[in-house]
Write a structure and sequence with these properties.
With about 120 residues, the chain is of the alpha+beta class. The protein contains three helices and four strands; from the N terminus they run H-E-E-E-E-H-H. The protein is elongated, with a radius of gyration of 22 Å.
Length: about 120
């Protein structure tokens, strides 16, 4: 029995399986992204705080809404017009506020309000 041939065969099958996983992931990502965007609604971003609690940004026409999702229900935390929100969303500007920082501040405020 030639071990070199067997090792080469296992390596080939490993690459084949990894290739199939990569291609499947690529197509599934496109499919899921299409499911998240509607004509009037779009899930911009979702952040999981715990397995059963998350917050998400939803664009509804010209309004952006920050929602909390839990097993108890969905609650509106804050809303902005699209023009107001555009300034906060710009992660590309080096000097301007980053949305991720703003979102962390909002989560911190939300958690403090829950403790009181």
């Amino acid at each position: 029995m030639d071990y070199g041939v067997e090792i080469a065969r296992m390596f080939f099958y490993l690459l084949l399986v990894l290739g199939i996983i990569y291609v499947s992931q690529h197509f599934l990502r496109k499919f899921v992204k299409k499911q998240r965007v509607g004509k009037h609604l779009e899930l911009i971003e979702q952040l999981y705080i715990s397995p059963k609690v998350s917050i998400g940004l939803v664009r509804a026409k010209k309004t952006v809404i920050l929602l909390s999702f839990s097993d108890k229900g969905i609650n509106k935390l804050k809303s902005w017009t699209l023009e107001e929100f555009g300034e906060v969303l710009s992660d590309s500007k080096e000097d301007g506020p980053k949305f991720s920082d703003y979102l962390k501040d909002m989560v911190g405020q939300y958690r403090r309000n829950q403790d009181e």
